[in-house]
Amino acid sequence: MKVLHLVGSQTSAYYYGVSMMYVPGCIKALPEVDHVILLAHLDGTWSVSESLNEDCLSKAERLSLPSALQILTKDSSISCMQPHMFDYKGMVSTRNVSDLLDIPMIGSPGEVMALTTNKWQSRAVVSSVGVPVPKAQLLRMGDEIEMPTPFIIKPCREDNSMGVALVQEESEIEEALERAFAFDDQLLCEQFIPLGRELRVGVVDGENNELEFLPIMEYFLGANKLPIRTSEDKISTDDQATELTFAPVDRKTPADIDDELYQKLYELATKSHESLGCRHYSLYDVRVDPEGNPFFIEASPYCSFSPKSALVSMSRGDPKYGDTDLFYRLARKAIADHEPIGSRNNNPEGQQTLGMRARPSLRTTTVSP
Q: What is the reported pTM?
């Protein structure tokens, strides 16, 4: 198997660094796999290399994206693409590199990522199928907040809790808005759910087209400054994002969950996955109030398959999983399900006369605990 890794960022030093934190762990965990790197540099150029070591990267020619894709098009041995870009452009439009190269990709396509990265839109979708969400208001510059304190202010299209603030007094509103608007022109003003439990849940495609519910991860926030997880609780960095390190974290997998809450979380995860149109896997941050009611907070359908990745850490809560089992299962599925453009055009069942999308092969997906 040969994997193309989509790496880097052309948006910010922070997300370039986040990408470079996770990729080496994925590559090191897969020594029997051949690797090729498509690296997006902050100056807008791209490079193609076989390794992320400094010597290899320094020798790699800086190219335009069309030139880089031309090189990769000549490599017919690439089996699939694994995305590791975490800025908005990288998670959305740049994922279409796999379509341009006509190779399978592990994970959700760009149009799904655009939906799930928008917190206002994704909560609207999951709420429409009965998933509980906190009360919220969409804010644009100049809008008045209608919600009483306490509430959370967060950018709609941002990740890693960047720009997120817990507003407990009206005097804190102006500073919270200023900080959040620095990241996005649309904000989510969301009801603060008192801390009962902070959980992460997820589903993955099983071997027989069923959705498998992963062991649940619980975060313990007793040592945090605030009763929420902020960006500082996830990745530590300086103001220039020159040095990034994983922040200390207190968590447990599998979490101790009673049957009633387990069923609620299972329904939340599977309904969210299907309604959002996620592919292969998806993760969700969930807040449980003191009465035991879970609330969808946001979707996180991305993974680098590093041993430090949340999806991998959660899977290890089940003894049948090691660091690489999910990667190989989902890579095999992506490869098996991929319909090359040429074969699709030669298949009468997949051709369209009037429609705008090729008809995919009909498959039935089931859900199971």
A: 0.92
